[in-house]
Structure formats: structure tokens, C-alpha cells
Amino acid sequence: MDQERLLTALRGVLDPELGADIVDLGMVQSVHEHDGHVTVGVALTVAACPMRDQIEGDVRRKLLALDGVEAVQVETTSMDAQQRAELMAVARKRARENAEETRIPATTRVVAVASGKGGVGKSSTSVNLAVGLRDLGFRVGLLDADIWGFSVPRMLGTDEHLSAGDDKLIIPAVVNGIEVVSTGLIVETEDTALMWRGLMLSKALEQFLKQVSWGPLDYLVIDLPPGTGDVQMALSRMLPQAEMVVVTTPQAAAQKVAARVADMARRSFMPILGVIENMAGFTCDHGTTYALFGEGGGQALADGLGVPLLGSIPLDAAVVSGGDRGAPVVRTDTPAGLALRSLADRIVEALPPVDGESCTGRIARLVDDLTAAD
Ligand SMILES: Nc1ncnc2c1ncn2[C@@H]1O[C@H](COP(=O)(O)OP(=O)(O)OP(=O)(O)O)[C@@H](O)[C@H]1O
Ligand SMILES: [Mg+2]
User: What is the distance in A from the centroid of ligand 2 to the CA of 227?
Assistant: First the structure.
């Protein structure tokens, strides 16, 4: 396997505060691959770096997302003074250069909700996951990347509109404590209609990432359109930290399509966090469970991809009525509501919020303070 592929994947690991990747920062000291086993030497800024677990976890996830990588061993060392000085120089330069990239900070975890087939429940899952994360106390954004087929505004029950701030940036609507951006929240005038019709899908997504004044979010949930096209590729290009969850039904056919999405995720270096099975067994009032859409598809897909099954959400009329009334079912004690709440817990476990106070960041400030004192 060529070194370049491994390094490209490692470029997806960002130092959260410096906003630069660990390859550019000179933190990757060595990468070796043998029979699918990769050993990576990572030099941390200080031995007791509080970011250690996070960086190790991110390195592992990015590399395991590559075809042919079976196991990853991360060996950490600490930098000497000279290396630290070089790192800070690179970090400062990168931070300046990258300021205009997107308005999503490196401290925001990005969860893209994907599937290979329409109508499996991506939007329902995205909306409920976002609300669930919010209810756990996180700062959450919800980006509706389904530019034409948007359903987020209805599911959140909002008729709020996006507005523009003094700096000409779009201000997200705040619904249920979540920052929401969707084409469905744009007031249709002749001008805007023309403008949006003229935009390519990937361009529209770019607008939403670059021209929106997102707050300092812990999580950004992205509801992807069905299929494996432009939008998904643009996303991975603009948000290197994005990770994907794949929604599938328990049916075998749906699973085949979802596998296609997973393949695309691998090609674009977007790690797959796990699989979510939706529309699983329906339990009637008498306690009998009916597998209306089959059984086991979620687990089978998860096994096939070597990722965990993050949750299984039962078929539940409360999802539909909640979506139609704009009252997310995650806030109810229905079977689906409970399953969605534990899904939010699992996502936080699998992708813990970034500790914004990284050791490199602290060193940067220390250096600045010392320089200022001179
Ligand atoms: N667990 C569930 N139980 C019952 N109905 C559900 C469940 N999940 C989703 N639905 C319903 O299925 C329909 C499709 O769901 P949703 O819009 O979330 O899918 P989607 O994957 O986003 O579709 P699209 O590909 O069109 O964007 C909706 O009417 C929704 O209310
Ligand atoms: Mg949808």
C-alpha cells in the first residue's frame, strides 16, 4: 500500500485548536504498513497531552477506513523543544491561510447521515439525533444538505426564516435550541429562487458552510440527500473531520445500496462511525413484535463493514406523527424515542466532543504571553 494513501488519510486528523492536520504539523513521525497492519509514530507536543486519546482514536478511525487496513498501532512520543517550535510556526501559518475555508471550526464534530436509498429515515434520524444531542447539553447545528428534497423544517415544525447579518453572512434559524440551516428556510422571492436554481448542489453546500455564521458548535449533524453524488464528495473535501453514519432498513436489498455509500465513504476518506438500523421490529400493544421490513440487515451491514451497529430504531407511528407535527419523537418515551435517545448516547461515546483546550493551543498562548512580556 503506498505511503501517500496513508498520509492522505492522516491529513484528516486535525489538531482541534490549531485547525491544521497532524501531517502538516509534523506530528506524524513514521508510517509503516505490513500485511494490512499499520504502525504510526505520532509525536505529541507534550508527553501528558490531554488530547492524546482523541488523536489516537482519530488516527485509528481514519486509517481503518482505508481498504486493506486491518489493524492500526499508534506509538506516541513527545516532541523536543526544536520540534515544538517548528510545529507552532506551521500551525500559525496554516491557521492564517485556512481562516476562509469553512465557518465550521476544527473543534466541531461533524456527523453526516447517509444512506444509499431514499426514504429509509435519514432525515428523521438526523433531526432526532440533533435534538437528542442538544438535550444532552451540547451545542448542536443541523445542516439540511438535501437542497431540493428538504424535509428538516417540517420535521422541526418551524416556519422561521434565515436572515442575513450585518456582515452579510446567513444567520441560522434557532429551533429547539439547535442552529438550523435548510433551503426550506429561505424566503422564496424571484431573486432567491433564481439564484438557488442556478447553483449546483455542491455549490449550495459550499454556501452553507462558508456563508453561514455558525456558532461554536460541539456537533454539526448533516442530513444528506439520497444517493452517493456530488454533495457527499464536496462535503468530505470541505470538512475533513466529517464522519459518516449509514442508515439502513433491516431489509437485505436496502443493505446492498447502503454498502455502496460505505464504499464511497472509504474512497473519500470519510470514516464510517457505524450503522443505524431504522424501521426495525414493530411491537404492537399486545407485546408481539413484527419484523415488517425483515430482520438483521443492520447488524449484517455493520459486520460487513467492520463497524458497530449504533442503534436499531423500531418502526413506530410516533416517528411519523412527530415528524408531521414538528415534535421530535426523541423527546417522548415511545419505543422509537427511547431508541433514539440511546443512539445519541452511542454517538457521543463513539465520537466524543472535542476538548477545545488542546495542549498545542495552550503552548501557543504561553508563547504569545512570553513574547508579549518581552
Ligand atoms: N422508525 C420509523 N417508524 C415509522 N416511520 C418512520 C420511521 N423512520 C422514518 N419513518 C417515516 O418514513 C418516511 C421517510 O423518512 P425520512 O424522510 O426520514 O427518510 P429519508 O431517508 O430522509 O428520505 P429521503 O431519501 O427522501 O431524504 C417519513 O414519512 C418518516 O416519518
Ligand atoms: Mg431526507
Answer: 11
